[in-house]
Design brief:
The protein has about 180 residues and is of the alpha/beta class. The protein is about 25% helix and about 40% strand. Strands 4, 5, 8, 9, 10 and 11 form a six-stranded parallel sheet that branches.
C-alpha cells in the first residue's frame, strides 16, 4: 500500500483522515468514503437533520452510490422518506426519467435515472437534494433536471462537504468545506 497524503477533518464531532487522490494532472481532492462508516454517517445525518429542521420539505433525493447510507440515516433522523436516483436502467424501472452528468471522481459521464415507481411520489413534492460531497455540481445539475421533469420543487440542497470554490456553494446546507489541492 502506498503512503498517501491525508487531510484531517472533523464532521459532527467525529475525526477522520481523508486520503488525497489525484483526479487530474496537478489536482488532488480529499476522498470522503462514508460506505461502511456507520459512526460518521449517523453523526452527519443527525447534524444535517438539525440544519434542515426549518426547511419545509416532503422527501430527500440522492444519487446512487456513496450517499445512500447518508440518505437512509437522514431519513430516519428527520422522519422523511428518501428516493435514490439510479445509475443503470433495469427493465423493471418502466417509464423512467433520465439525465446525464459528468462525475469528477470517475471522470466519466454518468446517467441518473428516476424509477417509474417513484415518479408519482416525487410529483408536486418539495425535495431536498442530498449528496456526500458537492464538488463540481454536475450531479446536482443532473438531479435537478430529473426532478424538474418529474414535477418536483427543489427547496434545498445538502451535503456533508462542499469542495472547490467555496463561494459557489454558499447556498448548500453542509457540515464543512474541502479545499482542492494543486501542485
Amino acid at each position: 500500500m502506498t503512503n498517501r497524503e491525508i487531510y484531517p477533518v472533523e464532521i459532527a464531532g467525529i475525526k477522520r483522515e481523508l486520503r488525497l487522490f489525484e483526479v487530474a494532472p496537478k489536482l488532488r481532492i480529499a476522498i470522503l468514503n462514508i460506505l461502511g462508516d456507520t459512526e460518521l454517517v449517523e453523526a452527519a445525518a443527525k447534524e444535517l437533520a438539525l440544519k434542515l429542521a426549518d426547511v419545509d420539505y416532503d422527501l430527500l433525493v440522492t444519487a446512487e452510490a456513496k450517499s445512500i447510507p447518508l440518505a437512509h440515516a437522514l431519513s430516519v433522523a428527520a422522519k422523511k422518506p428518501y428516493i435514490v436516483l439510479r445509475k443503470a436502467y433495469k427493465p423493471y424501472m418502466g417509464d423512467a426519467i433520465k439525465a446525464e452528468t459528468l462525475s469528477i471522481t470517475t471522470g466519466q459521464p454518468q446517467i441518473l435515472i428516476l424509477d417509474e415507481k417513484d415518479r408519482s411520489i416525487i410529483k408536486n413534492s418539495k425535495v431536498v437534494i442530498l449528496d456526500d460531497v458537492i464538488s463540481t455540481g454536475s450531479t446536482l445539475q443532473g438531479m435537478r433536471m430529473i426532478l424538474d421533469k418529474a414535477g418536483a420543487s427543489v427547496v434545498a440542497e445538502a451535503a456533508i462537504f462542499t469542495e472547490g470554490e467555496k463561494s459557489k456553494w454558499l447556498h448548500i446546507i453542509s457540515l464543512g468545506h474541502l479545499p482542492l489541492f494543486t501542485d
